[in-house]
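Chapter summary example: a protein plus 2-phosphoglycolic acid.
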Amino acid sequence: MRKNIVAGNWKMNTTVPEGVELAKAVNEAVAQEQSLKCDVVVGVPFTHLTAVNAVLEGGKVGLAAENCANHKSGAYTGEVSAAMVASTGAQYVILGHSERREYYNETNEMLKEKVDLALENGLKVIFCCGESLEQRENGSFKEVISAEISESLFHLTAEQWASIVIAYEPIWAIGTGKTATSDQAQEVHAFIRELVATKYGEQLAQDTTILYGGSCKPSNAPELFAKPDIDGGLIGGASLKAADFMGIVTAF
Ligand code: PGA
């Protein structure tokens, strides 16, 4: 049985003290939930990982970094390795976010290297994919998503695949207030699951968690999460306020 997950992606927001406060608020709210129907994860800047981990330790909320390097270690000034991320206590890393692909030129090939290093260091990967507005409108979106997933992930063994969570994030819906309709999202999620089934078989595909991201909020989360192939969300803006984030966590 696959897991439902709601993961926050704070992006480049909050100072360390602000982030610790936010993590505490989420941690306390999650601890009070009697019947949680999903795992909860917060994705935070590198600078925050250790301090936020101290707040979350022993609780129910998981911790993710928002990126890691595509090199193991050494002379890469300013980079943060997967081993460093794992040593903070984080269990997850978000890879392939469209903002990383677009503004930092991350390619499918680089992401493949990052995925391998993350898995070698025992991290689970929340792997983002999704099309631009142009690709949605010219009908090439399935090809784009298929290439993103197959070129960065399909070298993995079935055993390694168990550490992969997919996040479908249509770029035109990120931070724009323009959510994909639940039917549009469901169509792509079903397509992704089919793609995974073709490569890894029906059982592994059924066990794969596929999140939706892009202007997900308390008001639209119930309809999105009710779809058969949508197993939760990757939440940007609405993860920066504990009450909004909890409104999505409790949407199942
Ligand atoms: P958003 O961002 O919820 O602010 O649209 C989602 C994401 O980029 O992960």
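Key point: The mean pLDDT is 97.
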